[in-house]
Amino acid sequence: MDIDKLIEQLLTTDYGGVEVKRQALVRLLQDPELIQQALRNLVPRPGSTSARAMGCQCPILDNQDREGTGTYVITSQCPLHWHKKP
After folding, report:
1. 42-46: which pairs have CB atoms within 8 A and are 24 or more residues apart?
2. Does the pTM of the predicted model rise above 0.85?
3. 42, 20 in Cβ contact below 8 A?
4. Three-point CA angle 69, 65, 37, nearest 5°
5. Which of 84, 80, 82, 48 is nearest to 67 (CA)?
6. Cα–Cα distance measured from residue 11 to residue 60, given in angstroms and rounded to the nearest whole number
7. pLDDT tens track for 37-52
8. What is d(CA 24, CA 19) in angstroms, rounded to the nearest whole number?
9. Are 44 and 60 in contact (CB under 8 A)?
10. Phi, psi of 51 (to 5 degrees)
11. Which of 31, 36, 65, 79 is most enclosed, with most CB atoms within 10 A?
């Protein structure tokens, strides 16, 4: 099952009740790849209008040409996209 279908099961009311939702949530939480996919879906791409509205400081023009490549320019001042390793 892909992440979109899994999230759909979690967010809609017509998927068999609490047990089905519990199973979907457990599956999501146990699979690191699904977690990464979910996070990519939740955080808008660097430099986008929606990301800027959330406080993104990444360059706009540098990232426009990178749409769909999965590779973006991220600034260390960005609270949304910059993640320091502990």
Report:
1. 43/80, 43/81, 45/72, 46/72, 46/73, 46/74, 46/78, 46/80, 46/81
2. no
3. no
4. 30
5. 48
6. 32
7. 777 777 888 998 888 9
8. 9
9. no
10. -70, -40
11. 31
Residue closest to 28 by CA, chosen among 20, 38, 18: 38
3-state secondary structure of 64: helix
Give the separation between CA 64 and CA 75, rounded to whole angstroms: 15
- Please give the Cα distance from 2 to 57 (Å, whole number): 31
What is the residue type of 8?
E
Residue with tokens 């949304």: 80
Residue 17, token pair as written in the block: 């009740």
Domain boundaries, the chain: 3-42, 45-86
* Whether the Cβ atoms of residue 28 and residue 35 lie closer than 8 Å to each other: yes
Which runs of consecutive H residues, i.e. helices, occur in the chain? 3-11, 18-30, 32-42, 49-53, 60-64
Q: How many CA atoms lie within 13 A of 24 on its CB side?
A: 20
pLDDT digits (tens, 9 = 90+) for 14-42: 656 777 778 888 888 888 888 887 777 77
